[in-house]
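Quick question: what would this complex look like in 3D?
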Amino acid sequence: MKILKIAKYQISETKKALMSYYLIIIVIAFIMSTFMIRIGHGKENVSIGGLDFASVIFIFVVGITGFSDSFKFMQVNNITRKHFFQGFVISIFPITAFMAALDILINRLTNLFSVNNSLFTQIYLRQDSIARANPNIINNFIWSFTVLSFFAILGYFISLVYYRSNMITKIAVSVSPLIILSVLGYLNGITNGVISYTATDFLQLIWGFKHGYNPYVAVLTMTISFILLSLFSFLLIRKVQVKE
Amino acid sequence: MLLDFNSEKPIYLQLAETLEDDILKGIFEEETQIPSTTEISMNFKINPATAGKGVNLLVDEGILYKKRGVGMFVCSDAKGKIFEKRKKAFYNNYIVALLSEAEKLKISKNEIIDMIGKERSKT
Amino acid sequence: MSTIEISNLTKCYGKNMALNDLSLDITEKKIYGLLGRNGAGKTTLLNLMTNKIFPTHGEIKVDSETVFENENALRKIYYMTEKGLYPEDMKIKDIIKWSSEFYPNMVPSRAFELAEKFDLDLNKKYKGLSTGYTSILKIILTLSSNAEILLFDEPLLGLDANHRDMFYKELIHHYGNTPKIIILSTHLIEEVADIIEEVIIIKNGKLVLKKTTENLLSSGYTISGKAEDVDAFIQDKKVIGTDTIGRFKYAYVLGTPPSKENDQVDKMDLEITKLDLQKLFIQLTNS
């Protein structure tokens, strides 16, 4: 019971931001598609797309902000860390399901009078113009839902790592991706691009477009990553203390 | 009702005396209810246990009695009892102390009586 | 009937020991005063009691159940933290609403009633409150939580004299209606001295004493008079401390006070008064 109340709290905390976000997205989608109609006259080569990429960023930010303030409020209400975490994880799904559905809806509506390719169609259906004009909505939904859910927990996990770190670890955590990237870049240079080749290969594999185009490979990757990040987050959250 | 928190006397004793004063003055009539312990402690901002102790002291002395589920009431002969008690205390606190001080200062019994007479005629 | 058992509690921050092997049982429904100087470990103790932080050693149990990540035990406690842990942008009425979701025994109407008494604007955001009103909000939540154990950490922070007075009255009213374990941690000892029934004093993370206020104050007396006379008097007595103002001296002595007829007291014109909690506290916690 308590866990559902915590989830309810998390959702209500996101509601406002979610509403403002979609208000902006709808306005942008509307302006862009009318603009496209005027310059493109429905020609195929003029199109908009990737609007739902903004949703990925948005949910990532929701994840990041979902920890610190809520943790304090849950603590003042003597909620255990375990329940707080379970409540957050449960709160992710209705939010991401809602977003996935709304993204598809906005996409299909704008497609009525211009060409608007969703992230999903751009990645998995670019070879197939017939499918692209009429993508499988259920596949698109499941794919978006798992991707958004993954980015939510990723943001949460990162903010947890930050909260648990002291100043030095915080800097180390922030700087390490840059260092790793530049080291890899250097190695890439001296190995004639082996690293970038392998990385692209790997990304294509886990996102499901190495051997043909299969969004369900990505769904599987995202689900496994979600479970792993949840486990790591749970391990971290169990020992989080209120800072004095 | 006023309590002196700096006095040497414990607060519960002061509270008991204040309640007695109020009964003597007729603020609390015999067979009427007095404020609850919580009300008293809220009023003076003292611990309810302290207030309870003061009230119970008066219950033990037969000045107050408890009506189950209603509250504390003043006994029908409360005034008389308080007068008796205070008279006894007057003797111990004032007369005995007066005579012992008088002995030190070598004041005779007749001189004391004269002094009392003089003071009385003033009022 | 709730009980709190604290056994061998130690909390270290790096090399700094905030609490040092502290054991304490709180079993009776009373208003307790948790007293100690800054940094004595009061807040650390309260934070440990509510699973905000974790002990380095030792354990805290409520009704024989550990408080560590234990919903059952934690639900019995409402803790008014000194730090504001509420979301900055949340409106006061929403804070009350959500708090009563998590504390099923909380009575929101009681909270609203108290808010009106204290003149707290329900439509304000948390970040818009002054220090005093932040304290008031937290007091209101604690008093209407109906939890079995109430912990107050510096409840009087920023309150003016009127609000302090109202707080004491509401606290006593609440306790009078539903006796329970209430712990007040505060620096304003003089003000709460008559309200707290039992005193818990800690110093450098250790328990100094836990005694009823009455027993503590009757365990000694204050003697005052001319400095040399007081010195002569206290020669063979157990003195816990002295204060000197010019040639006048106060000595705080343990033991039963001498009777008024005591020749020494009488001749030297010394005065005997009761111990004062604040003075006693200062003497006991001076290092």
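Answer marked as accepted. The two ends of chain A are 30 Å apart (CA to CA).
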